Amino acid sequence: MQTKYLLSENQIPTHWYNVIPDLPGPMSPVLHPGTRKPVTPADLLPLFPMGLIEQEMSPERWVKIPDEVREIYRIWRPSPLFRAHRLEKALGTPARIYYKYEGVSPAGSHKPNTAVPQAYYNKIGGTKRIASETGAGQWGSSIALACKMFGLECTVYMVKVSFEQKPYRKSMMQLWGAEVIASPSPRTNAGRGILARDPESQGSLGIAISEAVEDAATRDDTRYALGSVLNHVCMHQTVIGLEAKEQMKLAGDVPDVVIGCHGGGSNFAGIAFPFVADKATGSKVRLVAAEPSSCPTLTKGVYAFDYGDTAQMAPISHMYTLGHDFMPPGIHAGGLRYHGASPLVSQLVNAGVIEARAVGQLAVFEAAVTFARTEAIIPAPESSHAIRVAIDEALQAKEEGKEKVILFNLSGHGHVDMAAYDAYFSGKLEDFEYPAEKVKESLAHLPQVDFAK
To answer: Which residues partner with 156 through β-bridges?
Structure first.
């Protein structure tokens, strides 16, 4: 009874998969926040090196992974695929459950899959310093690690609620040489503006993005790095799904449903996008994005043009959004507290290629505990949203008496998120269903644009 399915280092993917050629219809343009006209490569140069701008706009289905990036990937890639035999037994389900485990990376999450190539392209483009943001700290620790590997300075604006809840994520970033600043901060105009209106602000990913973008745009030696949402970020993460497809062949199974948690979209895209290509050729595989009911971007948001950040400095994208000034509650899955979503994920959800499901915080932690007590791995709160949906799918198979093959992405471990588990066991966690009227209030401030898809 095999548990692990492993690939050798020479089976690390040589190319990333770009989903754009397999989209149902053309993409909407990304708009400049000032002119509200489609952005050009020149518009993006203050933020990104040309190598990443070219990838962001690439129409090619396959993009070569540089040898320097693959060499660093060898530290933890290929990551293992596990068959969850013990979880299956505990649930009494006829379903076969597999999970791709990204917690084996040095930073303990899937985020280095894109942090490393972003640092590489910045290094060869002449960048000296990276400014970025982080929600739960997974991205921040990953970009700190990647910058250290390529000799770049790194400043990370960390959402204040996570800065306080997850001090060891901050320690990881500092260990790899990064400067870590609680956001909103008095260091930028964006941060000072937020603090003037709400001195006790817990922050949000949208605010932290504003601060990092402002930092990068006002220094010639600095570029900005984003850990999710953008096309090139989603593409870098497809090493997850590409490896998983080969490992599923070793297992002799084909997934009926593929699940990933969803915040901005990078983790979900990583596991699911390579299966979009299969759907484009007739596969019936279901792709399910699991998000928190307290930040229900895909399930309660609208598909519209909106700013990527709170201060309206980032480009305007066509995406599912709760409104750029949406202020999420301080849930422990800090990496999923974003008002918007990847335009690629959004287009696929809008076209019905991808399903979205919102789950409550208590049910998520219940699933995390069940998983840890059967499979032994302590999952990150973000990843546990995928576990919750995977368990629900397995229980549905049990109720229907049908076999089902389930694959989900366990995108990180919870070793530095133990305060969240402490809060759960002490009864301090509560479910929060974001009020529809609050969503409506935030959506009233969407930018007005002339472009109609």
So the answer is: 132, 180
